[in-house]
Structures are given as C-alpha cells and as structure tokens.
Amino acid sequence: AKRSNCEPYTINMIVAIREQLNLSHPLDAAVFACLTTSFFATARAIKFTIPRLDAFNPAIHVKLSNVNDTHDHQNLRMKTFFLPRMKSAPEGEEVSWAKQTGPSDLEEAFANHLHINEPPLDNALFAYRHNDSYRPLTKTKFLQCLTSTMIAAGHQPVSGHRIRIGSTLEYLLRDVPFDVVKVKGRWSSDTFLVYLRCHAQILAPYMQAMPALQEQFLHHTVNLPPVC
Fold it and tell me: Model confidence over 162-209: pLDDT tens digits?
C-alpha cells in the first residue's frame, strides 16, 4: 500500500524494511541496527550516522566504546548510548532502549551488526566492513538504503526525520505518558507539542481507538496555534 511521505515510521514499516535486507551483508546489518536503535531510542538517525566518509571524529561521534548495559530500579536491562557532543548538549547525553519482541527486535539487530561487522571500539558505532577495512555509516548511505528497501517493499519512501516522530507515536500508543515520551525523545516542550500538532491528522486514526490517549493529545495541543 502507498503511504504519504508525511507518514511517520511504524513497526510494520521496520519489519517490511527488514524483509528486504540481507542481514548477513555488512551494510544491511549496519543499516537495520541503526534504524532500530534510532527508532526505539527515540533519537534522530543523524546522531548515529556520519555526515561524510571522511568526517568521523571520535570526539563527537558515537562509538562502540560509548555503549553500555545498565539496569533500572526494577533490575530491567537497558542498552545505553552516550552521544559525545551535540549543539543541544555540549557535554553529551545518553539515549537508551530495551529489548523488544518479534522481527523488529533491536537487541537482535544490534547483536547481529556486532557479529557481522565487529566494529572497532574507537570507530563509528555503525561502521561496516568494506573490502579489507571499515566504512562509517553515512547519513546519505543510510537514507539511500531505506529508500531502496521501502520501494522494493511496495511502500512510498518516508523521510528519515519521521523516525523520531514514529517512535514517539509508538510509545504513546503503548500508554507511555506524554511527559515521559517527551523526556525520552529529548524534545523541547514547544517543539514536542508543535510537532505533534503538525501530525494531528496522521495521529487521529490511531488515537480514536484509544480515547484516553486522544484526550491527552487534545489537552496538550488544543490551545496551540495552527503551524502547518
């Protein structure tokens, strides 16, 4: 089925992309691990990709050495990623995800990437084997792969910017409170609400099936001026 290019990423899209990839291939393994990590960490993919092949800088780009397993107060295991430096957080910040179930399980995707590519600790996190060396996963290569796989799956390509809003929607539909999702996605208050308001038409069909969630959405956005 065709989708609007404003459609946010969904679990079904991720599964469709997975079905078009060869996860034993170094590039495909890196792309799928990057996609699932970005989605379930509610992070922009640009945080996990490199601008150009020659632009990797260990001081500002995430590396395997920036990844850790942690446990919360209920002893639930989470994978944390320290993003060394960004405009919005000069001292760096952490994002995290927890294991999922089914073909979109990012823990399996991440483990597969490490098995296939074995990226060095001091190289880009989603570096992949290329000939006898490694290449960092660039934003351009990442998006090109997503576009080609979505077309092959019969879907209209979706902008990489929709990964984080898709993650936001997914967690809201899981009854995670708005404020918690806002913190997880590191949204500024205004940006979070305005972005959701922009996607009101897209979100409405999902939310109508969940009255409590729709009520929260209206409570948070009803007084915002129209922006798009």
Answer: 888 888 888 877 777 777 777 776 666 666 666 565 555 555 655 555
* Residue 131 Cα distances to 27, 33, 55, 128, angstroms: 12, 20, 19, 10
Q: Which residue is associated with the tokens 């060095």?
A: 120
Dist CA 48 CA 40 (whole Å): 13
The whole-model pTM stands at: 0.80
Distance of CA 101 to CAs 11, 15, 69, 104, 105, Å? 11, 12, 18, 7, 5
User: Using H for helix, E for strand and C for coil, what is the string for the chain?
Assistant: CCCCCCCCCCHHHHHHHHHHCCCCCHHHHHHHHHHHHHHHCCCCHHHCCECCCCCCCCCCCCEHHHEEEEECCCCCEEEEEEECCCCCCCCCEEEEECCCCCCCCHHHHHHHHHHHHCCCCCCECCCEEECCEEECCEHHHHHHHHHHHHHHCCCCCCCCCHHHHHHHHHHHHCCCCHHHHHHHCCCCHHHHHHHHHHCHHHHHHHHHCCHHHHHHHHHHHCCCCCCC
Count of CA atoms in the C-beta half-sphere (13 A) of 204 = 7
CA distance 183 to 226: 24
Cα–Cα distance, 78 to 80 (Å, whole number) = 6
Give 88's Cβ-side CA count (13 Å radius): 9
